[in-house]
Design a protein that fits this description.
The chain is α+β, with helices and mostly antiparallel strands. 47% of the residues lie in helices and 24% in strands.
């Protein structure tokens, strides 16, 4: 339902359509001779005056949202389109068309409130994860130090079951390293989720980064698997955060090794052209079922 009104250039109501009754509960006669500011929410009056002054000065139609009081004393959100009426290029009146947008505003406020609550929960979650991760590091460091001391003790005493004991010590330290990697992953995700990820882009050679990462992290694999690196093109300079790119590339390669069959190498193809670099990492695992693929970017899925 639309309310159509005519105003003089001072915004005084001269004509009000009968739809005002259904919209606000007032009759047209109750508005004639008054101004919209007389019915506006106190917090909206200043903006309303500014908007109408701008309309009269610049003669450009505008659309704005204000809260108007109804006959019951409640405020409703109304959206008003206003334009100047001319007579021989001389502005003589203002015409407005207004509709109720209260339901839309309620929905917007509900979404805004939900987002605020979500941000607060994300912040609490990030702080909790950071605290837990910090608290875990102390006992993990103690465990690793104890394992190293035990290994030193074994080397000096040469017990009969030394190899079995060393095997168990290595398992302990490997699991500690795995927990640390997992904690770092959780912290990275939490920081990104709360908008606290540090982003420091620089120009660097993506191919050089990939080669160095493969050599340092994946050249000595317990399954005797390697990365077969192929590249096309000669332009691999990019402008990005080097640490984040390396982190993402490491995770992709690490997952590829983790889920591939024994004995099969991982393929990584780098293909560059003038505008982009395509990175392909191909493993030989069981793959991801089609019904699960839409959930790929759910945390820890």
């Amino acid at each position: 339902m639309h309310l159509v009104c005519l105003h003089d250039l001072s915004m005084t109501f001269q004509y009000v359509s009968p739809s005002i009754k259904a919209l606000t509960g007032f009759t047209p006669e109750q508005l004639i001779g008054k101004k919209p500011m007389d019915f506006a929410h106190p917090e909206d009056i200043g903006k309303m005056i500014t908007d109408f002054d701008d309309l009269v000065t610049n003669h450009q139609p505008n659309r704005n949202e204000y809260r108007y009081i109804s006959s019951t004393g409640e405020y409703n959100w109304l959206e008003t389109d206003a334009k100047i009426v001319f007579d021989n290029d001389v502005p003589i009146k203002i015409q407005t068309s207004t509709r109720d947008i209260s339901k839309r505003k309620e929905a917007e406020f509900a979404v805004k409130k939900t987002l605020q609550q979500e941000r607060k929960l994300n912040e609490l979650r990030t702080n909790l994860v950071s605290t837990i991760s910090h608290e875990f590091r102390t006992p993990l460091t103690t465990i690793r130090t104890s394992a190293e001391l035990i290994e030193m003790y074994l080397e000096s005493h040469n017990p009969r079951n030394e190899q079995q004991l060393k095997k168990q010590i290595n398992r302990i330290t490997d699991e500690i390293d795995r927990i640390v990697v997992l904690m770092n992953s959780v912290l990275t995700i939490s920081k990104d989720d709360s908008g606290k990820t540090t982003f420091a882009p620089i120009t660097f050679d993506f191919k050089a980064l990939a080669i160095a990462l493969v050599e340092t992290s994946f050249s000595d694999n317990i399954k005797n698997q390697k990365v077969d690196l192929h590249y096309e093109g000669d332009q691999f300079l990019i402008f990005a955060d080097k640490n984040l790119i390396e982190y993402a590339l490491f995770n992709l390669l690490n997952n590829a090794f983790k889920y591939s069959e024994n004995g099969r190498n991982i393929e990584m193809n780098l293909i560059s052209n003038k505008s982009e670099i395509c990175v392909e990492i191909i493993d030989f695992g069981i793959g991801i079922p089609e019904e699960d693929q839409p959930k790929l970017f759910n945390y820890f899925f």
